């Protein structure tokens, strides 16, 4: 008999294509994913996934189960949102997601909320990828973007700019700290790809925070958002790059608009975040 957990495992494995991220997304041990998949395939009498080029690809039978699993997952997420949306208490946990570069700013938003609403606690998911709010991976997303998804609602907290930064006091030309393929979709990565030759790159990172740390250590120069450099001993080189100006948004799923704890956080956080970005 298939359980809900089995279907969620199948959906997670189909979405990620690999057992390790599926296990992380389900918050279970990797061995559990391997063991339960083996048991499911034994029960079915046929493989549910093919192993192709390091990816787990659903078989025809697996594809049928994936469709069913996605439906169950969507229904569970809808039920959670409806439950949260009907909550009237100014208490409970709020799951926030934000990229590492915004953690210093986001962290300062939490104490004022706690001082005013001591019953609210937080889970902070630091990720450079956009959480699937429809699947309830997070309740509030605080993201740098010029084009927030149309499926979400929220507030624009302010704008920020990019510039090149080096360790304070540095005068000589330095090699570049660039972003790796995991961040290739963001405008800063595209700017670096267009303006920096491969032989000029001394380090590639998958994190803006890591780029800032490496620059502050004197390894090279990094293209960074202006709000991030305040956390490090860095000087700006040259002017701001106008083409890279972007925005920070606080975003939620529409079903959570009337949830008191979510609204209380949004009301306090938006203004404080806006003031920090202007500083």
Automatic annotation (TrEMBL):
SUPFAM superfamilies: Periplasmic binding protein-like II, Winged helix' DNA-binding domain. This is HTH lysR-type domain-containing protein. Residues 2-59 form the HTH lysR-type domain. It holds the Pfam family HTH_1. Keywords: DNA-binding, Transcription, Transcription regulation. Signal peptide: none annotated. The lineage of its organism: Bacteria, Pseudomonadati, Pseudomonadota, Alphaproteobacteria, Hyphomicrobiales. Transmembrane segments: none annotated. InterPro entries: LTTR (IPR050176), LysR_HTH_N (IPR000847), LysR_subst-bd (IPR005119), WH-like_DNA-bd_sf (IPR036388), WH_DNA-bd_sf (IPR036390). Belongs to the LysR transcriptional regulatory family. It comes from the Bacteria. The keyword DNA-binding applies. Gene3D superfamilies: 3.40.190.290, Winged helix-like DNA-binding domain superfamily/Winged helix DNA-binding domain.
């Amino acid at each position: 008999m298939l359980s809900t957990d089995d279907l969620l495992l199948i959906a997670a494995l189909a979405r990620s294509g690999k057992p390790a991220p599926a296990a992380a997304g389900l918050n279970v041990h990797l061995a559990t994913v391997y063991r339960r998949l083996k048991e499911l395939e034994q029960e079915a009498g046929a493989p549910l996934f093919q192993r192709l080029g390091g990816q787990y690809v659903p078989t025809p039978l697996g594809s049928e189960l994936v469709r069913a699993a996605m439906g169950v997952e969507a229904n569970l997420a809808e039920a959670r949102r409806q439950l949260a949306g009907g909550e009237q208490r100014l208490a409970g946990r709020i799951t926030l997601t934000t990229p590492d570069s915004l953690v210093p700013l986001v962290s300062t938003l939490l104490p004022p909320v706690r001082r005013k609403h001591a019953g609210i606690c937080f889970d902070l998911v630091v990720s450079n990828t956009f959480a699937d709010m429809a699947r309830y991976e997070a309740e509030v997303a605080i993201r740098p973007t010029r084009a927030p998804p149309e499926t979400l609602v929220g507030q624009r907290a302010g704008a920020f700019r990019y510039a090149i930064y080096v360790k304070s006091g540095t005068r000589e030309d330095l090699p570049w700290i660039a972003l790796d393929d995991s961040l290739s979709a963001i405008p800063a990565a595209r700017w670096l790809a267009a303006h920096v030759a491969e032989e000029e790159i001394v380090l590639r990172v998958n994190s803006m925070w890591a780029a800032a740390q490496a620059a502050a250590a004197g390894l090279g120069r990094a293209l960074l958002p202006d709000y991030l450099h305040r956390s490090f001993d860095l000087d700006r080189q040259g002017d701001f790059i106008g083409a890279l100006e972007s925005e920070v948004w606080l975003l939620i799923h529409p079903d959570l608009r009337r949830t008191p704890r979510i609204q209380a956080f949004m009301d306090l956080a938006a203004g404080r975040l806006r003031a920090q970005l202007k500083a």
